[in-house]
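Raw record, unedited: Transporter
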Amino acid sequence: MRTMLKIENLTATVGEEDEAKTIINGLDLEVPAGEVHAIMGPNGAGKSTLSYVLTGRDGYEVTGGSATLNGEDILGMDPEERAAKGLFLSFQYPVEIPGVPVMTFVRAAMNSQRKARGEDEISAPDFIKKSRELGQKLKLDADMLKRPLNVGFSGGEKKRLEIYQMMMLEPKFLILDETDSGLDIDALKTVSDGVNAMRSPDRGMLVITHYQRLLDHIQPDKVHVLAKGRIIATGGPELAHRLEKEGYDGVLGEVA
């Protein structure tokens, strides 16, 4: 099975040089094409930091190791280059962009990525048709898609909007950083249905979450436990059920 995301002995720090704190500490992980892997772990384990390092967020410095997507080193790329290669991050707290309508933002993002790949821009009729179809699936009405990005949206609406962006862009590898945060049952199901619709033999996903409830809807192929910046345990979906029952202490105690 072809490996999509491969991380080897990755270390990374956050903060200014004299006060830099190591958050990722010798992390190894492989996600093959066609698989969904979940990362769970206690607060401060490095879950969100891992997503930021992989997507190139400012303020995080890689101090060792490697990360490749489809065999290409991504750590040396700018964030927009990583996006053009097919890497997508769904944020725990989506940002608001006043004055920029949702559809304008998404079409610009799609065309920017197409240009980087040497493809033609999407035509207005094709864009509108695709947008309308996906909006209906995700219960986003046409007026919502004309509003400024995330401005005045509820938590659930923001998350549904990120899934809409993901489905419009059709990335090769998805990183979902606590996408279930702040969602009620209905919104959780809508978001999960959107994520499940993206499952594909040539696409990989990394789902970062605290809770089993998301994994009831998005059933992972593997579950990894992250603690102190490293993967300390790996198993099937049953590992997430065990964590829900016992908490992290039992697993952490076994490894200590």
